[in-house]
From TrEMBL:
Keywords: Lyase. The gene is ectC. It is an enzyme of class 4 (lyase). Pathway: Amine and polyamine biosynthesis; ectoine biosynthesis; L-ectoine from L-aspartate 4-semialdehyde: step 3/3. It catalyses: (2S)-4-acetamido-2-aminobutanoate = L-ectoine + H2O. PANTHER family: L-ECTOINE SYNTHASE (PTHR39289:SF1), PTHR39289. The keyword Lyase applies. InterPro entries: Ectoine_synth (IPR010462), RmlC-like_jellyroll (IPR014710), RmlC_Cupin_sf (IPR011051). Belongs to the ectoine synthase family. Catalyzes the circularization of gamma-N-acetyl-alpha,gamma-diaminobutyric acid (ADABA) to ectoine (1,4,5,6-tetrahydro-2-methyl-4-pyrimidine carboxylic acid), which is an excellent osmoprotectant. It comes from Marinicrinis lubricantis. The keyword Manganese does not apply. The lineage of its organism: Bacteria, Bacillati, Bacillota, Bacilli, Bacillales. This is L-ectoine synthase. Its EC number is 4.2.1.108. HAMAP family: Ectoine_synth.
């Protein structure tokens, strides 16, 4: 059994900071669950372009509001607390944060914990 609190992740190697977001990685590949689980905050007023071409991702918003632009299918959605979206087809997308956006993200294959977006907005597959 794994029991881990967000408080114990903050300030460790599992607390990854980037220009537009902070990702607190609660479960990683080495935990052996077959997916990774992240508590992520995207900062108000930021725009993040992403393309998880190597992963599928599900996102559940627990706080805030953002506009999700699905570049692959040319659709736009407003995402707020209580909404979920899943990138089941490796869609290229842009998230424009209107209000501090906190979400729980699940990735498959699982992240190792060192991933940050590359020049395409993707996470590489790391061992």
């Amino acid at each position: 059994m794994i029991v881990r609190s967000l408080e114990n992740v903050l300030g460790t190697e599992r607390d990854v900071q980037a220009e537009t977001w902070s990702s607190r990685r609660l479960l990683l590949k080495n935990d052996g669950m077959g997916f990774s689980l992240h508590d992520t905050v995207l900062h108000e007023g930021t725009v993040t372009r992403m393309w998880y071409k190597n992963h599928v991702e599900a996102v559940y918003c627990i706080e805030g509001e953002a506009v999700l632009e699905d570049l692959t299918n040319n659709k736009t959605y407003t995402i707020k607390a209580g909404d979920m979206y899943a990138l089941s087809g490796n869609e290229q997308h842009i998230l424009t944060v209107k209000q501090r956006f906190r979400c729980v993200c699940v990735f498959n294959p699982p992240c190792t914990g060192r991933e940050v977006h590359d020049e395409e907005g993707a996470y590489p597959i790391l061992d």
